[in-house]
Specification:
Radius of gyration: 28 Å
Strand content: 25-35%
Mean pLDDT: 80
Shape: elongated
Helix content: 10-25%
CATH class of the largest domain: Mainly Beta
Low-confidence stretches: 1-45, 289-297
CATH topology of the largest domain: Immunoglobulin-like
CATH architecture of the largest domain: Sandwich
Structural class: alpha+beta
Number of strands: 23
Largest sheet: 10 strands, mixed
Amino acid sequence: MKRTLIITAFSLAMSTSSVFGQTSQSQHNHAGHNHAVPGMTQAREVTQAGPHGGSLKQTGNLQIETIVSQGGLQMFVYDRAGQPVSVDQGRGAVSVRVEGNAKRYRYDLLPDGKGALTAPVNLSQLAGRQIDVDVQLVGMKASGGSTVSFNEVATVPASEQQLAAAAIARQKICPVSGKPLGSMGDPVAVDVNGQKLYVCCAGCVNAVKSNPTKYAAGRPQITVTTATQADAAAIAAQKVCPVMDEPLGGMGTPIKVMVGDKPIYLCCKGCIKKIQAQPAKYLAMVYGNGKTSTATASAVPPGTEQVREGIFKVVAADAPFIAAQKNCPVMDEPLDAMGGPYKVNAAGKAIYICCPGCAKKIAAEPQKWLAVLKSQGVDAPTIR
């Protein structure tokens, strides 16, 4: 009995492995003619939505639905009439290539007991990126014993948390107060006509709800007036124009620009467009002493989901600090260039890195890399 089981398991492993041995040989072209290998069924390139929300393709007598998620890949099989086909005796393999990368990664497809063939693999770090998937299946009775093969191109979906972090990074500032999102704790989402808008704190929620049209653009309202005598004290405190770095009053009466509820004083009308284009930048210069944004003087949570020991996935509260830091201090690459950003603890401060490989250098010399950020005008946030 043991011998029989070993042979069966070995044969199954060989049949699954051999599936991918045929990938490069399954088709070849001569003078515009395509010749498929006998016994191998190729999918027709007609794609539609499947019952589970995946991509559905016709291949011979079967329809295959492919679902790509952050937890891996699933294949549901149906007959021509759209009725589910049992995959309990089926096996297969997928070969995955990430956009911009020539290397392919192979994973087995096995029955998951829920009606699908599944390759459980963590794709969360590829959220939003396109993958090219070669699929080959064996053991499908409904296919008449033929090997089923097809190609799928899909985008790994982002999680709700990742979508929120991206939206916060795009919006950057609270449309009510004009403060950087994250500078007063985790941003708060408000529904405006079916779309999520983020504000800096719970105190701004009612303002949005009472006048959603005013704040629907996700940016603070910007109004321009001429400064009056009532602004004299504020002008004296600000001293210089954040755009031109010229003394206020040196080019006539200062211009007063209200960004949300925050005034910024300018030396002339020519500077107004700069404020309108980058309100968060100039708010940070005026209310953050001209060096770092309010966000960089705040704190972030330590993180709960580790990629590796001491390396954490970022959350929505990290978005403004990621925007402020921009580049990995170790590689001097954009934080999202290598699958990041990730967060590490450097002597109680959060440093964002482009890939897990940079964490060792941060851990070995945390003060060195904090100093690198400081030299770039970035104060790493405290981990609370």
